[in-house]
Amino acid sequence: MAHIATITIAATNKQIPVPTGLFINNEFVPSVEDSPEKILAINPATEEVICPVVSASPRDIDVAVKAARQAFQTTWGKNVTGFERSRLINKLADLIERDQQELAELETLNNGKPVKIARDFDIGDTIQCLRYYAGWADKIIGQSLEVDNKTKLAFTRNDPIGVCGQIIPWNYPINMWAWKVAPALAVGCTIVMKPSELTPLTALKLSELVREAGFPPGVVNTVPSYGHVGGAALAAHPDVDKVAFTGSTVTGRKIMEAAAKSNLKKVSLELGGKSPHLIFESADLEQAASWAALGICYNTGQDCTAGSRVYVQEPIYDRFIDLLTAKVKATIMGDGFDEISTGGPIISKGQYDRVWAYIEAGKQEGAKPILGGVKRTGKGFFVDPTIFTDIHRDMKIVKEEIFGPVLSVGKFKTESEAISLANETNYGLGAGVHSSDANQCMRVSSSLEAGTVWVNQYNLLSNNVPFGGKKQSGIGRELGSHALAEYTSVKAVHWNFGEKVDWPL
């Protein structure tokens, strides 16, 4: 049994035991390499080390993949009914709901986001996601197809694709875990999960609940590791049938290349974004300003769908800027254990420096910071929301994903100009339209090149609605029934019951 770290939550004086080994075959184990290398989990609000965690090597990945393959061939895959899969997934959801507060506190400690956000939104949605896919587990159906009614028929089966490598990011550690795990388990796949090296703790804690729920050994395996080690090993592994990744476009390209060069495994990628908000003159400006503020401030702007570009129709520009500035100014980026905090720190020193490099680039290229843009003193990777105006299309802050609370605001005159500005990006994950003209909403939402378009709202997702990107924002879909297709392989069976063949022809 690997070491258990007892973590003290200073705000509540609560102690939480967290396993720090690799979770393989329902056991927490050390690395087979017996390597002294560890991942240091950091509290981004204090910059202090929480605890060390075992870092998986390529050999550990291989052990985990073998465990997953064994489970797929014996106790999971096609060897268990949908009813049983559903029961176990629902049981896991019940256990997460039981431990919701503790998981939220651990998430806040390692990720920085406010406890109330982690508990009520991230984990609340995780529970719903698991229950949604538990409902699908016994409803995986094929088709019966007419070929020749007198002599033959064909039917299809949606078989589980097999062993799935799943690589998740640090911005929603629990929520992204559920988005990957739930549909894969529902159809009968087994999993090797690599959480981000920045936020490994809740994935390890969830692994305890997987075992408690009664999943057979090897069905879910958790291997904290650095991306260039564990992530690369999963992407290139010849016995992994599918890899699912959420993260940067740069890393997504590497994963796709490794998958192609190894065994041509199936790949789904949810990548970056530079999502636009279009504010038309007929919009409810109070509400549009609130949604735009949420779009850039929620999760401290560390969101693939962050609405980081806002374009406002000229006649309402000045009024909207005043409303938006007031709403963004009301955001409190603070300690996640403080009830008044609505956002937390940036995840790491590296990401903090990256965000500040963009803020400085915006200033140097001539954009005007009308809010924020000033560094705090003291501990913690805190960045206050920053709004730039006087932007132009060639600026780095307008073109590149920042992944922090940095907003660029521009103007437009006509609807066609607004659509052109919105689509002028290599990304295509999300977009927002704010207008009281129903016909305009339909025209514009149809013209925007994005996988998700929000009309008179922003950044709210539902477990039964598909989510994913276009262009360099990725391939494949998560959530809804569409996610099931990412984890299944369609088999066609041709059945001859009457036709005789003469040979030679």
Structurally, how many domains make up the residues? Answer: 2
| CATH-derived architecture of the largest domain | 3-Layer(aba) Sandwich
Q: State the secondary-structure class.
A: alpha/beta
**Large-scale geometry:** globular
The first-to-last residue Cα distance is 66 Å
* Residue runs with pLDDT of under 50 for 5 or more positions: none
The number of E-state strands comes to 22
Rounded to the nearest angstrom, the radius of gyration is 24 Å
Q: Can you say what the CATH homologous superfamily of the largest domain is?
A: Aldehyde Dehydrogenase, Chain A, domain 1
What number is the mean pLDDT?
A: 97
Level of helix content?
Answer: 25-40%
How many H/I helical runs?
Answer: 15
CATH topology of the largest domain: the name is: Aldehyde Dehydrogenase, Chain A, domain 1
Question: What does the largest sheet look like?
Answer: 7 strands, mixed
CATH class of the largest domain: Alpha Beta
Strand content: 15-25%
Family: Belongs to the aldehyde dehydrogenase family.
Keywords: Oxidoreductase
GO molecular function: aldehyde dehydrogenase [NAD(P)+] activity
Pfam families: Aldedh
